[in-house]
Amino acid sequence: MLLAGYARHARIAFGFARHTSSRGEIALKIIIVGAGEVGFHIAQRLSRENQDVLLIDKDPDKIHRINEELDVQAMLGSGTSPGMLKRSGILDADMLVAATDSDEVNLIACMLARQLNPYLLKVARLRNPEYLQMKDLLAQDTLGIDHVINPESAMVETIRNLMLVPGASDVIDFVDGRIKLIGVTIRSDSPFAGKKLLSFQEMADRLLVGAIVRGNKVHIPHGEDTIQADDLVYVVARSGDLQRIFRVFRIKEEELRRVIIVGGGQTGTALAELLDKTKISTRLIDRNPVRCAELAESLDRVIVIHGDGTDRDLLLEENVKNADFLVALTSDEESNVLISLLGKGLGVRKTITRINKLSYIPLVSSIGIDTVVSSRLSAIRAILQHIRRGKIISVAPLKGEHAEAIEAEALSTSDIVNAPLSRIKFPKDALIGAVVRGDEIIIPRGDTQIRAGDRLIIFALHKAIPKLEKLLTVKLDYF
After folding, report:
1. Which of 72, 289, 303, 389 is deepest in the core (most CB within 10 A)?
2. Are 53 and 44 contacting, i.e. CB atoms less than 8 angstroms apart?
3. How far is it, in rounded angstroms, from Cα 351 to Cα 159?
4. What SS3 state is found at 372?
5. How far is C-alpha 221 from the geometric centre of its chain's CA atoms?
6. Which range among 111-115, 201-205, 366-370 shows the weakest confidence by mean pLDDT?
7. CA-atom Rg of the chain in angstroms
8. Sign of torsion, CA 270 272 277 279?
9. pTM recorded for the entire structure
10. Domains and CATH numbers, the chain
11. CB-hemisphere CA count at 13 Å for 374?
12. Per-residue confidence band for 7, with pLDDT thresholds at 50, 70 and 90
C-alpha cells in the first residue's frame, strides 16, 4: 500500500521533573523568557499539548495578550532578574527557553537559571553570528547553555534546500539529507489528481504521502483518501528517488543558473556568501550604499547593486524575468511581498519571501507568493526539537502549522519496537513515513517492525502529539 504505518514522538526525558496536567497527563514545566512572536507561538503550541508553561516579559501589552489569548501563566518582569526567575518556579522547572529579541538578555537569563537550577535544560535564541563561533565557551561552566538556536542560519538552510528542488513548495531534509520531505502542489493534469492513494500501489516502496494540506487544513491521509487538484502534498522519499518523483508529479527539472537577492542584511549576506562559492550567477540588491560597498569588498562572484528592490525599472534592468529565483529578504515584510509580486508579474520563475509576522503567512500564501520563509518560524522549529519528549533529532512544522514532521530514534524500552505496525495502537492522526535502519531506508507497510535504534520519520497533527510522546518515551516500569 502507498500509505502504511503510523507513529510517535518525543525528547529524552531522563532528569526532567514530572508534573501532572489537568487531564492527568505527565507534563513538563517550561519557562519561556520573551513573549514576542517566537515565545507566544511556542507557548501556544505547548499549551495545546497541556504542558505546564509560564512566560516572562517586561512589556505589559504582551502579557495582556498572553492572558487574553492563551491558557498559560504569564508574569510581568525581566528574565534577567534572579528574583523574578525564583518567583516563576525556576527551582523545580524542567526547561528554560530564552527567546527574546536580545541576545544579551537571553545569555544572562540562561546564566542566572544555571546558577539557580543546575539540572535545568537551557535553550537560547542567539542571532549574532559571533556567538555561534564561540559555542565551546557558551557550553562551558560560565554559561552552561545546552542548545543554541540561530534562526537566520536555519532560514538560509531552508532557502538552499528550496533552490535544490525548484519545483517544490517546501523541502525538508532528514537523516543528514538521505531522506527528503517534498511539498508538491498537485496540478490539474497530475496523475494523482482525483485518485485515491490506494491506486498508486506500484510506488509503495519508493514514496509515501505523509500529509495533505487543503486550504488551511492539514490531513494525515490513509489509503481511501483522494488527492485533489491544488492540494499541497508532502511526500517522503529517498534522495536517490527524486528524479522518479519529479516525473510522477510532472515537476520540470531545470538547472539553477540565476538568483537575485534583495536585502543585504544578515540573512541576505549569508545566502550570498553561500552562493558566492558556486557557479550560480547571483546579484544582491540593497538600498544602503555603505552596506553595498562592504558587501562588494567581501564577495567575489556575487554582483552587488545599490538600489531599491521595489523599483520595477531596476528589476527590469536586472532582467528579473530570466532569473530562476527572486529572494526578498529585507527587514520590511510589506516590501518583501511587493518585491515578490513585482517579480512574479515580470516573469521570474519562482519567489521566496521573508515574512516575520507568522499571522501574515496564510494571507501572503493566498495571494500568489510561491514560498514564504520566516526566521521566527525557523526558531520555533529548532526550539520544538529540544522540547519534545523522547529521543527527537529534528522537528519541522508543516505549512499551516497544524502538523509536524518529526525525526526520532526508537528506544529499546518504548512500546513501538518489536511489533508489526498494524498491531501498534497509533492515533489515527499520526503516520510513520519512513524507517531508517543503518544504510537501509524502508518505506513502511503494515507488517514492518520497528527495531531499537531505528530512525523514524513521523507525521502527526498537534492533537496526536501527547499520545505519540507516550509511545516513544521510556516506559515507567523500566525504572
Report:
1. 389
2. no
3. 11
4. strand
5. 21
6. 201-205
7. 23
8. positive
9. 0.74
10. 258-348 (3.40.50.720)
11. 26
12. very low
Half-sphere exposure in the Cβ direction for 241 (13 Å, CA): 21
Average pLDDT over every residue of 330-349? 93
Packed helices 151-164 and 375-387: angle between N→C axes, nearest 10 degrees: 100
Long-range CB contacts for residues 352-360, cutoff 8 Å, separation at least 24: 352/159, 352/162, 352/325, 352/326, 352/327, 352/328, 353/328, 354/155, 354/263, 354/267, 354/328, 354/329, 354/330, 356/37, 357/37, 357/333, 358/37, 358/41, 358/401, 360/333
104: left (phi over 0), alpha (psi -120 to 50) or beta: alpha
Residue located via cell numbers 554559561 = 143
Go through the chain and tell me how many residues it has.
479
Question: What CA–CA distance (Å, rounded) separates 8 from 431?
Answer: 8
Q: Which of 259, 179, 200 is nearest to 432 (CA)?
A: 179
Spatial neighbors of 151 by CB under 8 A, at least 6 apart, are 125, 127, 375, 376, 378, 379, 382
DSSP for 317-331, please give it: HTTGGG-SEEEE--S
Cell 497533527 -> residue = 461
Instruction: List b or e across 416-431, with b for residues whose CB sees 16 or more CB atoms inside 10 angstroms.
Output: bbeeebeebebbebbb
Cell of 72: 498559560
pLDDT of residue 18: 45
**Cell numbers 526532567 correspond to what residue?**
16
CA distances from 442 to 84, 218, 238, 398 (A): 50, 24, 9, 22
Q: State the Cα–Cα distance between residues 294 and 414, nearest whole angstrom.
A: 54
CA 278 to chain centre: 26
32 sits in which H/E element = strand 29-33
CA torsion, points 284, 289, 295, 299, in degrees to nearest 10?
60
Cell 537550577: give the residue: 117
- Return the C-alpha cell found at 70: 492563551
